[in-house]
Design brief:
Length: 260
C-alpha cells in the first residue's frame, strides 16, 4: 500500500504522481488497479454525486458512507477521507473525534482538512492520524472568499506561502494547492520537504489531482480547474438509448439473455 513515506521519497526523487477522487466501490477498484496511488474521498461528493450545489451541505454520515465504499475497493492505494464543513472548525476535540471516525469507522488511512488549522493538525498527527492539508482556494470557505476566485495574488502570496510552511511544521504529510498562481505554487513546492498536490495551481506541484467525474466526462460541465479525458456521459447515453430501442422493438431479451 502507498504510504506517507513513499510520497516523501517520491518528492525527493523528483517522481511526480497522481491523486483522484473516488466516491464508490467500483470506481475505487478501477482506479486502484490502474495504479493510482492516492484516492481522495472528497466532500466534492456533494456536488458530483449527491446533487448539492456545493460541498457545504455534506455531513459526516455521508462522508463515512462513501469512505467505507472506497476503502472496500482499494487494495494498494492510500485512501484519504475529507473532513466536511463544520466537522472540525468548531473545536479541536470535535475535529479529533470526526477524524477518528473516518479512520476507525470509514477505513481511511489519512484525513484531509481545509485551511491552516495548525493546532488540530498537530494534535491529529500526535495521536497517529496522518493529515493532508489544503490551502489556496478552499471550497468550504467559498462564501467568505466571494466565490471560486484565485487565491494568493499580490501581497496575499506571502500569507499563503506562510500557511504552507506552518502546516508542514505542524506535521502535515502533504498539501493540496488549489486555485493559485502557478508561480506561487512553484515557490511553495520548492520550499517544502513534503509533497504538494495541485489543482488549478500550475505544473510545478509534485502531484496533480482531479475530480473523477470531470476526468471521465460524466459531469455536464467541467470547471476551469478540471479536464475531460473521456466522454462517459455520451457513452452512457448511447448505451441507454440502445437498450430502450431493443426493448421497444421486442428484441431484448433474446434467448441468450433469458432463463430457459
Amino acid at each position: 500500500m502507498t504510504t506517507i513515506h513513499d510520497l516523501k521519497a517520491w518528492k525527493a526523487a523528483g517522481r511526480r504522481f497522481t491523486m483522484l477522487t473516488a466516491y464508490d466501490f467500483p470506481t475505487a477498484q478501477i482506479l486502484d488497479r490502474a495504479g493510482v496511488p492516492l484516492l481522495l474521498v472528497g466532500d466534492s461528493v456533494g456536488n458530483n454525486v449527491l446533487g448539492y450545489a456545493d460541498t457545504l451541505p455534506v455531513t459526516m454520515e455521508e462522508m463515512l458512507h462513501h469512505t467505507r465504499a472506497v476503502a472496500r475497493g482499494a487494495e494498494r492505494a492510500m485512501v484519504i477521507g475529507d473532513l466536511p464543513f463544520l466537522s472540525y472548525q468548531v473545536s479541536i476535540e470535535e475535529g479529533v473525534h470526526n477524524a477518528g471516525r473516518l479512520v476507525k469507522q470509514g477505513g481511511a488511512h489519512a484525513v484531509k482538512l481545509e485551511g491552516p488549522h495548525l493546532d488540530l493538525v498537530h494534535r491529529l498527527v500526535d495521536i497517529g492520524i496522518p493529515v493532508m492539508a489544503h490551502i489556496g482556494l478552499t471550497p468550504q470557505s467559498v462564501h467568505a472568499m466571494g466565490g471560486y476566485r484565485v487565491q494568493g495574488r499580490g501581497e496575499a502570496a506571502h500569507r499563503v506561502a506562510d500557511e504552507a510552511e506552518q502546516l508542514e511544521k505542524a506535521g502535515a504529510f502533504s498539501i493540496v494547492l488549489e486555485g493559485m498562481p502557478a508561480e506561487l505554487a512553484g515557490e511553495i513546492t520548492g520550499s517544502l520537504q513534503i509533497p504538494t498536490i495541485g489543482i488549478g495551481a500550475g505544473p510545478s506541484c509534485d502531484a496533480q489531482v482531479l475530480v473523477i467525474n470531470d476526468l471521465l466526462g460524466i459531469n455536464e460541465r467541467v470547471p476551469k480547474l478540471g479536464k475531460k479525458f473521456a466522454d462517459l456521459r455520451g457513452v452512457m447515453t448511447d448505451a441507454v438509448e440502445a437498450f430502450m430501442r431493443e426493448v421497444e422493438a421486442g428484441t431484448f431479451p433474446d434467448e441468450d439473455h433469458s432463463y430457459s
